[in-house]
């Protein structure tokens, strides 16, 4: 805006210079950025995995060298976060691959002239659970997992019961 003197009275109709407002756009919701396809995204930014791996190794080395308790705690938290992110990414990738394989099977059946069959969310969840149990059985952690689940369910059941205050 134009600066005006405070000593002169302001004219009744003054000239205002219009300034074009900057339009901010969010690439997540904008059509100009194209459609988000996780497979393409993962391929394009696959180089980040190696960088993350290097960073994780560096943090582990720093953790071994570190003597300060507070610093060590921060590094440990950072390392835990990195490993959790890595596990989440692997889980997501597995889920994507499973869905892609199901789609491929459906395409094959469609080519053979059969009617396509799409799994419900509940069916997908059951398959996922069965796969998880198989994985736990292979690694030998099934029994401990089931014990934890039993304890958790017992605690939930206790909470649901009415309190017995006498």
From TrEMBL:
Region (Disordered): 141-166
Subcellular compartments: Nucleus, Nucleolus
Cellular component annotations (GO), alphabetically ordered: 90S preribosome; nucleolus
Disulfide bond recorded as keyword: no
Principal subcellular localisation of the protein: nucleus
Residue ranges that the Swiss-Prot or TrEMBL entry lists as coiled coil: 52-139
InterPro entries, alphabetized: RRP36 (IPR009292)
Family annotation (Pfam families): RRP36
Domain of life according to the entry: Eukaryota
BP-aspect Gene Ontology terms: maturation of SSU-rRNA from tricistronic rRNA transcript (SSU-rRNA, 5.8S rRNA, LSU-rRNA)
Keywords on record: Coiled coil, Nucleus, Ribonucleoprotein, Ribosome biogenesis, rRNA processing
Amino acid composition bias (Basic residues), ranges on this chain: 147-166
Similarity comment: family membership: Belongs to the RRP36 family.
Subunit structure comment from the entry: Associates with 90S and pre-40S pre-ribosomal particles.
Function (record text): Component of the 90S pre-ribosome involved in the maturation of rRNAs. Required for early cleavages of the pre-RNAs in the 40S ribosomal subunit maturation pathway.
Name of the protein in question: rRNA biogenesis protein RRP36
Natural source organism: Sapayoa aenigma
